[in-house]
Amino acid sequence: MKLFRCDNCGNSIYFENRSCLKCGLRLGFVCEEISLHAMQPDANHADRWRRVDQQQFVYRFCPNAAFDVCNWLVRDDSDETFCTACRYNGLVPNAKSREGLRRWRAISDAQRHLFYSFLRWDLPRPSRKEDPIGGLRFDLKDDKINPDGSCQPVLIGHDEGHIVIRTAEADDPTREQQRAMMNEPYRTLLGHFRHETGHFIWNKMVRDAGKTESFRAVFGDESVDYDEALKHHYARGPRPGWGSSYISYYATTHPWEDFAECFAHVLHIIDSLETAHMFGIALAPMSHDFLAAHANFDPYSVLDFERIAEVWIPLSLALNTIHHSMGERDLYPFILTPVIKGKLAYVHSLLTRQI
Q: What pTM value is reported for the model?
C-alpha cells in the first residue's frame, strides 16, 4: 500500500484517511490514478469536487460517503453512480443500525484494500451488469435469527462471481471464535475478500482464458468432485506432511481452494512489501542488477517472484519476531517451501500477464 502526500500542505496521508490531519481538507481516492488527493468544493456545482492540485475534472464522492463508509471518487461525466469498489455490492448492512454501520465500515475498509490491488494489476472485474452470469457481486449478509432465538450463521463463499461475506465477522470476538474453531492461524476480513475473489480470478484468468492445462501442471486436476473433496477434508483431513506442498490447511481441500489461497497470499505479500518499502523497511540484500532495475522498488512491477520471495521471507520472519516481543502470535504464520513458492510464482505470473 502506498503512502500519499496532501496536495495542499504536503503532509503524509494514508489510504484510510478521510481528511488531512494537518490542513483539514477532505481527501478522495481517484481510481483512475490509484491515488489519494486533497479535494475542494467546485464553485459552480453543488456537491461536486475538484482536486486541489489540478482543476481538469469534476468529481462526485461515492454515495456511501454519506455513511462515512467510503471516500472514493466518481468522475462526474461517468454513468456509474457508485465508486469502483462499492458498485459491486448487492446486499449491504443496515446503515440505520449502529451495529450494521460499524460492521459495514470495517468490511468496506477491507474491500477497498482488495480493489487497490485489483487496480494496480488491472485485474478483470466485470460487474453483474456487464456479465450477468459470471460478473462480480458481493452480498454482505447478516446471520439469520431463528424464531427460537438461535443463530443461523451465514456461510462465506462464492458462486460464479457471486461472493457472500458474513457481516458478523466484522466483530473481533466472532471472527476469533471462528479462527480458533477452524484451527486457522490467520483469519481476517481482508483475507476473506482476497480468497473468495481468487475463485473469481480463476474463472476469468484460467478457465475462461483456456489455461487449465498449465494450471493442472502446478495445482492438479480441478475436475475431481469438489463436494466429495470437501467432505473428505472435514472427515479425514489432509495426509501427513501436507505443509511442504500447501500454503494452508484449507488449501489441501481441492485445487480450486489451493489456487484461491495462493492468490490471496500473493496479494498479502505484494501489498505488505509495498507498505514496508514506503516506510523504508528492507531486510534482505538485493543484487546490484536488481537494484539498478528497480531503484524505486515497486513490488507490483517486479516480474520475478523469486526476487519477491527473497525480500519477503526475511521481512516476514522479522515481523513475526517483533510480534513475539509483544506477546502476540505470528503475523505471517506460513512457510514458503520450494513447492509453495512455485505455486505462488504461477499465480504471480498469471496476474502480471506472463502466462
A: 0.94
